[in-house]
Amino acid sequence: MTQTPAHQQTSAHQHPALTATDPELAALVTAEERLQADTLRLIPSENYVSTAVLEASGTVLQNKYSEGYPGRRYYEGQQNIDQVERLAVARAKALFGTDHANVQPYSGSPANLAVYLAFAEPGDTVMGMALPMGGHLTHGWGVSATGKWFRGVQYAVRQDTGLVDFDAVRELALKERPKLIFCGGTALPRTIDFAAFAEIARESGAVLVADIAHIAGLVAGGAHPSPVPYADVISTTTHKTLRGPRGAMLLAREEHAKAIDKAVFPGLQGGPHNQTTAAIAVALHEAAQPSFRSYAHAVVANAKALAEALLARGFDLVSGGTDNHLVLMDLTSKDVPGKVAAKALDRAGIVVNYNTVPYDPRKPFDPSGVRIGTPSLTSRGLGTEHMAAVADWIDRGVRAAGTGDEDALPKIRGEVAELMTAFPAPGLPTA
Ligand SMILES: *Cc1c(COP(=O)(O)O)cnc(C)c1O
């Protein structure tokens, strides 16, 4: 029997049951597989999970209810599920070197909400980086439940350096005496100084929460300093640089273990998503391998090379470059709004997101910046030698956006797709 070439495969080959039951949905999945294969995905919070992680996420562990924790469940039949969760917890503790790990939070936002429930009362003051400076909604920003139910006070980065202004953070913390101080964010291209935050948290009597959602994989792989010696609680997603399924974890010192566990269940959630717990365990196993250390360092090397190549093409970068996986481009000097650039790049097969830059004169829904990152392209095997080409495509795409040269975009898209064909990713069509 001859095999159908990959590029001629349809959803019927890859998802036979799904195609038979629901061809409409199957076609959408197949289209997404094609899109992920053919485009250059530069969204820094995205990644490509391994085949093993994909398989674990798609198991019958899905079918099981397991409210509670291993050995203390409210349902019977946990012979295997308990072992799955214990494995995930043990691997999380070993990988990050923490006393305690809770792997049940459904995602990063609920994980952070559990932290509030564990350590604060409604109306208490909490402190985090302002969203437009690169913080996260759940760090007490006004439109989030965390900013409505708690009194959020925000710190900033310095306008001249793009770096956290620790004098201002200390002053604010001592004045406001927050219950929680969050460090970490979604658009921070530089190393987080956990020690400096810990010092301020100690002086002001706050619980320090390191939200390493973006950089967890870099921390695990030794490409970013660890918050473990400094933070009281560490919150992270599992699906960004850590390259696991969509999910989250809370890591803490033993003294906070009970409060964290009680807050996640029964405080905030019901049954854990066991198929996700299994996939987290797999991802943690992968992240403990030497090859993952190489991956984490390659992510950073690629981001630095891409930043250099963009600077060489006259782009302004917030903080002048990057220490991690992320580059925040300020397009003000190019006279192209971030959203216009992002939409043009999307038509060119380069997937980014528009983003505010610190002190952005434009509105959050129409900001000056574009946020890019290298976790996904590094997972596909692109190296520093490819970053000049990536920067060229971005440059041409942004120029085309500025001049309205629509015809330039499909041409770039073709070049991108041609390169990406040589760099397959798990679960995606290969040609
Ligand atoms: C992504 C992210 C979150 C939220 O994660 P979700 O899974 O999208 O809810 C929280 N904090 C930071 C810093 C993040 O980058």
Automatic annotation (TrEMBL):
Major subcellular location class: cytoplasm
Subcellular location: Cytoplasm
Keyword Iron: no
Class of enzymatic activity (EC top level): transferase
Disordered: annotated segments: 1-20
One GO CC annotation: cytosol
N6-(pyridoxal phosphate)lysine carried by residues: K240
Cofactor(s) in the UniProt record: pyridoxal 5'-phosphate
Role summary: Catalyzes the reversible interconversion of serine and glycine with tetrahydrofolate (THF) serving as the one-carbon carrier. This reaction serves as the major source of one-carbon groups required for the biosynthesis of purines, thymidylate, methionine, and other important biomolecules. Also exhibits THF-independent aldolase activity toward beta-hydroxyamino acids, producing glycine and aldehydes, via a retro-aldol mechanism. Thus, is able to catalyze the cleavage of L-allo-threonine.
Name assigned to this protein: Serine hydroxymethyltransferase
Gene behind the chain: glyA
